[in-house]
Amino acid sequence: MDQEEARGAHPYEDRLRRVIQYIFDNPAGDLSLDALADVAAMSRFHWHRVHHAMTGETCAQAVRRIRAHRAACWLVQTDWPVTQVAARAGYANTDSFARVFQRHYGMTPAAFRAAGRPDPQSPILRQGVPQMYPFEIRDCAPQRLAALPHKGPYPEIGRAFQQVAAVFTAQNLWGHARGMVGVYYDSPADVPEPDLRSHAGVILVDGVSMPSDLEEVLLPGGRHAVLTLKGPYSGLQAAWDHMYCTGLPQSGETPADSPPFEIYLNDPSDTAPADLITEIHVPLAGA
User: Fold this and answer.
1) Taking Cα atoms as reference points, which of 178, 169, 156, 148 lies closest to residue 69?
2) Which of 14, 33, 164, 283 is deepest in the core (most CB within 10 A)?
3) Where is each HTH araC/xylS-type domain found (predicted)?
């Protein structure tokens, strides 16, 4: 089958996606090999081999990675005490949580929380405190995404990205990927969190058929306002505010009737939060 033909799902793809979703939704639950094999509906004697062959990581490594990811999000998105974050992420005590978290992110949970949050005493560009972001008007090519929808709080879109990644891994598609994108259709200021709509997707190279189980999302080309954030994802809201409050008005440009989106230029699984790079794209009218 060549790349122009429809790509069929790997026979075990559904099992892998169920397991990843289960880990994401139940980080404090029973995530033993036996429990995950039950979710996969496969013998434990075979499931750990299937998982490793499909993903390149063991079940235990997947559990540690997703637990750490959930904990990292909660540290910067909530005011929960570290003890509560540790318990929700499935750690028996804060000492074991701190050790595992530091191995994964290179800093303690407290330091990660401090690095991932703006200073609450001086974040407000609407009050005249300047915070500069690289901003430009750029001619962009159209992009085609293989994506899954997400409905709910935007910071929870990670669960959809996990599912997309599972499909790309199961169908051996990463060689045809050119970056990950989040498309956001609603304003959190106007739409209740449970009703927010978004897509989590991967840019496909030209000529590759849409993977089974994923939706095609087309992003328009033409002139875009592009703002670049270097730093943790917790700083994205301030960057979005800067785009709409300062960047666009000063440019004299008007947004087009197309949703804005974020392009993630590096991988949070192997990049320090301070080194993450995200581009915010707003398609422009008249492009």
Assistant:
1) 156
2) 164
3) 17-115
